[in-house]
Structures are given as structure tokens and as C-alpha cells.
Amino acid sequence: MLQKRLELLYASQQMDADTYERIPSLLGELENKLGVELQEDNAGAFVSHYIKAIQRVKAGAPIQEDPSFIQMAQKKERLFQWAIESLHPFANDNVSLDGEAVYFVSYFEMMLGEEPVC
């Protein structure tokens, strides 16, 4: 499951040790939820984005997205919830994860072969 990509991201200091230790189990949970095996060809870009998003969330500076895009992404309730859940372990209580979730929903739709909502 994308181990080489994770090792490269860690070696290039794009993620900290805490994230590196926690990300495999989080990706495994996501595989179970999506029912899709995450591989380089279907999830490589997502994993790189996920790592960057985690680092932004940890720094208290997640992406802030236009409210209309957030509303569109929220129409995919299950995917939007999974996106929030995948970032929540790294967030403090004062940080909105909705902007980051918009992009995750798009990735999830792609992995599932669904029509994108935004």
C-alpha cells in the first residue's frame, strides 16, 4: 500500500515522524471504508495531498475553501464525513476541516469511479 511513496515523503521531510507512524493505519481504515485497495495508480496523488493536508492541519492552517464548494462536497455526505474523519486525529478543536475535505471528496469520487460534484 504505497509504502515507497510514504518512505520518500518521510525521507524528504514532507511529514513528521508522528504522521509517518500513524498514516498506514489511517490509509487501511480508508481502504475499508471505500472498499478500494489504495495503490500508486489510483491513490498516489491523494496520499501526497493527504500528507500535506495533515501537516497544514497540524500547523492550524488548513485550506479555507469557498463556501459554495463546501456545500457541493457536503452533498456527498458519506465521503465528506470520511474526509473529516481522516483529518480529525491531527486537528485541534478550533480548526475547520471543511476546506480540506472538499479536495478529499474529489479524490474519493475518482477512486470510486463516481461523478464529481465539484
Q: Can you give the mean pLDDT?
A: 93
Backbone CA Rg: 13 Å
Could you tell me how far the N terminus lies from the C terminus, measured between alpha carbons in angstroms? 28 Å
User: In percent terms, what proportion of residues is strand?
Assistant: under 5%
- Give the SSE order as H and E letters: HHHHHH
The total domain count is 1
Residue runs with pLDDT of under 50 for 5 or more positions: none
Fraction of residues in helix: 55-70%
Structural class per helix/strand content?
A: mainly alpha
How does the overall form come out from the CA principal axes?
globular
Tally of separate helices: 6
> How would you sum up the major sheet?
none
What's the number of extended β-strand segments?
Answer: 0
Your description of this structure?
The chain is mainly alpha-helical. It is 68% helix and 0% strand. It is built from six helices and no strands. The chain has helices at 3-11, 17-34, 40-58, 67-74, 77-87, 98-112. The longest helix is centred in the middle third of the chain and has 19 residues, at 40-58. The protein is globular, with a radius of gyration of 13 Å. It starts with a helix and ends in a 6-residue tail after the last helix.
